[in-house]
Amino acid sequence: MKELSLNVLDIAENSAKARAKLIEILITEKENVLTLVIRDDGCGMEEEFLKNVTDPFTTTRTTRAVGMGLPLLKLEAEQTEGYMEIRSVSEKVDSEHHGTEVKAVFHTDHIDFTPPGDMVSSLVTLIQGHPDIDFLFRYETEKGEAECDTREIREVLGEDVSLAEYEVISWIEENLREQFTLI
Amino acid sequence: MKSLEELQAIKMRMKDRVVLREGTNDIRVVVGMATCGIAAGARPVLNEFVRDVAEEGLSSKVTVSQTGCIGICQYEPVVEVFEAGKEKVTYVKMDVDKAKDVVEKHLKGGQVVTEYTIGAYQS
Asked: Which of residues 8-37 of B touch A (CB under 8 A)?
């Protein structure tokens, strides 16, 4: 991918597909290390699937037998001498505490580091496409942090106004862009 | 800073609009957002449709939504337009400028932009 933000969008789409109610996207960028965590409370993966999940020929797609999402993220992390790890608990194993966490670590001073890109745009795209899912987004640098928690926004808006409304989406986008100018 | 008060104001405005919103929503624009679409540039295309449909006042008749892989990855970004009583239109290799065109000519004007459709690429 051209930007890490596109990987974030792609991986979080998996969480949405796993029927997550809350998707957390947590990024910290400190001392030349960028850590990305995408955590959800979706259905999780069974052990057998998890073992092979970074193999491109393992996929939930029904339109093609090849899935490149996780393999791409893994490659992008490893080419900076970082790594990616996945933990997952299937709902079939634990019906209360299930979900998936993808963690990728990058060395930002490595020549092959994929730039973060437009994280705000990815988050806004996710909310537009999945207005019923909650998102906690946090981007932390040494200077401070930018955060968006749709649970807080939902509380203000009440049940009648969808997060996918253009005015709401625009508010979220502008609010986050302002926060990003400070970090 | 964008404040929560502004969000509150949006909520109030939306409430007033609920009545007007009994729109027909008879056109559905669907953007493929699987890995293939995203890598090919679907994100800005989707966001352009969302913005233009809202700003051109088309929200009552057009909904913009996302889907997974449509199965023609080599043609991504792919955008499908579904309209009641009409055949589905599949736009391929989309970008922001083409999205603007489709909003203007197809969604507003009712004319399919044939040159961007899959038929134009395959022939």
From this structure: 8, 10-11, 13-15, 18, 33-36
